[in-house]
Amino acid sequence: MPDTRRRVCLQWAAAACLGPAVPTLAQAGTQAEEPLADAVRTALSASIANSAPPQPRFSRIEERLAYLRWLGAMSDKLKPRKAERQTRIEFLETLWYESKRASLQPELVLGLVQVESGFRKYAISSAGARGYMQVMPFWARLIGDGSVARLFHMQTNLRFGCVILRHYLEREQGDLFMALGRYNGSRGRSEYPDAVLGARRQWMTA
User: Fold this and answer.
1) pLDDT along the chain (206 residues), means of 10
2) Could you read off the pLDDT of 17-49 as tens digits, one per residue?
3) 100 vs 106: CA distance, rounded Å
4) Cα separation of 54 and 165, whole Å?
5) Angle 153-157-163 from CA coordinates, rounded to 5°
6) Cβ partners under 8 Å of residue 45, min gap 6
7) Is the whole model's pTM more than 0.70, yes or no?
């Protein structure tokens, strides 16, 4: 076998074993607009409204140390996608805060962001979903102040996405598989939940 052909075959085999260096993006989120009961709309709006900067508080030093270890480990993993350290740390601090605020696992939200936008702040899908968590513009009208442009703001986008996923989890009575499908607009199909849960495993710490 010629050297060039041999080298190409070896490279192809290595790629097949290791998987793609850059994850393939799934179909971006296309949450369906549905009527919301007044009480639900009010609760979701209240959850979105307070945009205070993320300031984690810990009752025990062990909790703070665990958080700092998590932040360091996630920063190392995220570095290939966000090279600038300060930007990377601010993103992780905000994602952790908004995940915990919505009672979601931060690693799950990292997996969802990876699948939805590939960690691109200004990503826009063909359906018009925006930002890191690919939030559909109708949510800005339903539970926000109507400003679609604000969905590109990091904390705003992460807060909307986490609140919406929590809402879908409650609608699905805690069924994560179905809630993820609803978030993506593919409820009942396995491709999207499998992709997010697979991505989540990449962010889990030992």
Assistant:
1) 39 33 46 83 87 82 96 97 96 96 97 97 93 95 92 95 96 97 91 97 85
2) 333 333 334 445 577 788 788 888 898 999 888
3) 7
4) 19
5) 150
6) 143, 144
7) yes
Instruction: Identify whether the C-beta of residue 130 lies closer than 8 Å to the C-beta of residue 191.
Output: no
DSSP 32: P
CA distances from 45 to 15, 116, 178, 182 (A): 46, 23, 23, 20
CA distances from 201 to 18, 111, 114, 151, 164 (A): 15, 8, 12, 27, 22
Chain mean position to CA 4? 41
39 burial class (0-12, 13-18, 19+ CB within 10 angstroms)?
exposed
In single-letter form, the type of residue at position 74 comes to: M
Structure tokens at 137: 């513009």
Q: What is the DSSP string of 176-205?
A: HHHHHHHHHT-TT-SHHHHHHHHHHHHH--
Residue 16: the pLDDT is: 32
CATH code, residues 31-203:
1.10.530
Find out whether 164 and 135 touch, Cβ atoms under 8 Å: yes
Phi-psi domain of 4 (left: phi exceeds 0; alpha: psi -120 through 50; beta: other): alpha
For tokens 């339903």, name the residue: 142
